[in-house]
């Protein structure tokens, strides 16, 4: 599919490896511009270049460790930017606890 400027931008966390990388690849194949988020800037740059080369899409790199409050705030600010709207969010980064999210105390979420 040919990318167009009317495609919805997707932000993918954990985009440099595993399932996050696969989500990014699938979205790029559909022509979506991407915002790639993960801890390693160099791996994100490699991923962005590869997806651009393969699919012709634009891929913005946003290095962030989502266990660090300041990095989370940077991702939130990017999501809130009205000049560069994000219409698809794939929140793939992180870990999970063995309970439903709403049943986990905030302390358990922040220390895991």
Polypeptide structure, described:
This protein has 112 residues and is an alpha/beta fold. The chain has a single domain, classed as NAD(P)-binding Rossmann-like Domain (Rossmann fold, 3-Layer(aba) Sandwich), CATH 3.40.50. Helices cover 40% and strands 15% of the residues. It has four helices and four strands. It has a four-stranded parallel β-sheet, with helices on both faces. Strand 2 (34-38), helix 2 (41-55) and strand 3 (59-63) form a beta-alpha-beta unit. Helix 1 (18-29) packs parallel to helix 2 (41-55). It is globular. The N and C termini lie far apart (40 Å).
What is the fold's blueprint, element by element?
Elements: E1 10-13, H1 18-29, E2 34-38, H2 41-55, E3 59-63, H3 69-80, E4 88-90, H4 106-111
Parallel strand pairs: 1-2, 1-4, 2-3
Q: Taking Cα atoms only, what radius of gyration do you get, to the nearest Å?
A: 15 Å
Number of strands: 4
What is the CATH fold-level name? Rossmann fold
Global structural class: alpha/beta
CATH 4th-level superfamily: NAD(P)-binding Rossmann-like Domain
What is this structure, in a nutshell?
The protein is built from four helices and four strands.
Jot down its keywords.
4-stranded parallel β-sheet; 4 strands; alpha/beta; single chain; 112 residues; 15% strand; Rossmann fold
């Amino acid at each position: 599919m040919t990318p167009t400027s009317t495609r919805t931008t997707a932000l993918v966390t954990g985009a440099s490896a595993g399932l996050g990388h696969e989500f990014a690849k699938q979205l790029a194949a559909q022509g979506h511009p991407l915002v790639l988020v993960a801890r390693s800037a160099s791996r994100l740059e490699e991923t962005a270049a590869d997806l651009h080369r393969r699919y012709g899409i634009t891929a913005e790199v946003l290095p962030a460790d989502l266990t660090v409050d300041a990095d989370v705030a940077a991702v939130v600010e990017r999501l809130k930017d009205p000049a560069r709207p994000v219409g698809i969010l794939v929140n793939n980064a992180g870990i999970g606890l063995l309970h439903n999210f709403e049943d986990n105390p905030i302390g358990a979420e922040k220390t895991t």
